[in-house]
Amino acid sequence: MLDVQGMEVGPGTYLLGLYLPVSTRLRVGALGTPELPAGSYFYVGSALGPGGIAARLRHHVRRSQRPHWHIDYLRREADLVAALISEGSSRRECRWAAALEAHAVPVLDPRGFGASDCACGTHLFAGARWPGPAALLRRLREPLGASQLWSARRLARLAASRAR
Ligand SMILES: [Zn+2]
Question: Whole-angstrom Cα distance, residue 72 to residue 91?
Fold first, then answer.
């Protein structure tokens, strides 16, 4: 477990708010080369192993030289704007994905993005032009039961900090 800014961040579920500045054709491994329009994107994941959410967010804050997860390919092109966090050892990412759909955030093709290990169609959602990623995360915080909302500035501090 990592101690970040004097606060312990254990295992849990997270939701990334991203902004893609220009339309981009991604090369997403086996998922092909989808063309993504510029705009807001939302990705849900969980980090239940050693290092928990802090280690995973540190991974997402840095642009991956060798992409491992689907989200790594998008992250190379998109800015990470904010993150919602809920600590706990139960896997809540699929519930969060369903909640995102309920908030009328359109599902992005190709289906299966980030959802190779579950029954969800996707764990990546595209947003309307308004609200932006940070505003939607603020709006979703209570419905999702997320305990923390991290700003881009705080995420950058996490990236600069060292794992202990
Ligand atoms: Zn799922």
Answer: 21
